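Shift notes (night). Ran Peptidyl-prolyl cis-trans isomerase while the centrifuge was going.
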Amino acid sequence: MSVLLETSAGDIVIDLLVDYAPKSCQNFLKLCKVKYYNYSPVYSVQKNFSFQTGDPIGPDSKDSDGGSSIWGLLNGPSQKTFPADIHPKLKHLERGTVSMATVPNPKDPDERLAGSQFLVTLGDNLEYLDGKSAIFGKVVEGFDTLENVNSAFCDDKGRPLKDIRIRHTVILDDPYDDPPGLEEPPHSPVPTKAQLATVRIADDEEVAEPVDEEAAERQRREREARAQALTLEMVGDLPFAEVKPPENVLFVCKLNPVTQDEDLELIFSRFGTILSCEVIRDKKTGDSLQYAFIEFENQKECEQAYFKMQGILIDDHRIHVDFSQSVSKLSDVWRNATNSKRARQGGGFGGFSGLEKRRQYRAMDGGSGRSRDYGMVFDRDDIRRGRDPDEKPRDPHRAPSRSRSPPRRRREYDDRGYDRDYDRSRRDRSRDRYRRRDRSSERKRSYR
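Came back to this:
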């Protein structure tokens, strides 16, 4: 004989001890059958001890009558309670022991009366309840639900702030005949107004925690940054999404257009060894874009320069100094290593190396294992060769031209405006043409 209690904290299956407590088991089964416990709240939760339920409204409400037995519902208030059968062999030794809550009988101190309220133990060896509560069942499934109830946040009276209620009861096996006048409802009844009035925080209501706008905005930006980094990793611009900028590189902006790399390196070199210092320039005109990157040998020197050089005047311009957030060097080192590995393996993408060579963000390795030149928007090699950086390079795999005609000679004129060499060559060609014609005539005559 078993009963399933569906609660907002989870399901509980109770096996009934009909051989030891027949009266209590019959009362509990019939109350479950008429859906008396539906929407009953869990109250008086005592951590690691027990929790109590069974009053359809709850003892805190002024409309509560403390609950009634099945005979009180059928025959009137005179049978609201019944004598509880307390078996001397049944003890509260195990967690999940189910017993009826009882009170002493005013007419007989040795007898205890029970109604509809029952309790479930949340701990072991609770001898205090022996003889005071009438054991009639044990929990066989749903111990995780007991833990949820045990860990619920409660007020000083033991009432959970967020309601824990019995939603539905299902009888798995009932050996008892129905008392006269018992009618099983066709469906689960809706909560009464008195029950709804006792709701604090509904069991299906989400408790909204106070929202810190600054923290929420920070979390939103972090999620957005992670999504963008993951996108850059997928397209190959970053070696991995969690890459961090180097901590020994400074970003300097608001420079005077006349400030050169050497001038900036000389000014910042008093803080330590500088590995690279470059003013970023336009790749077409070579004009300064008024910002630069300075790479120190270690992080401590970089931090000193950051604190000391903020807002100083260089060439009549008050500069701004910050730590670099660029990872172009790290990306290019990773990309170059990846490309070289593909080349050694005989693979790679068509035109990939050529595209990478023309990238706007390019780091050039000075042979020391570090990228010594940013070269972000200005290619010195192209300017030195006098070639437009945007010009499409010649394909080395294109077949050479098959034209064998010699290049045309540049004509040179004398002081009178004549090109003697051109006229001479023209005269020689005419002479040759007439000679060929004369030879042809002689052959014809000889054949005759």
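The first strand starts at residue 2 and ends at 7. Residues 346-372 have pLDDT under 50 and may be disordered.
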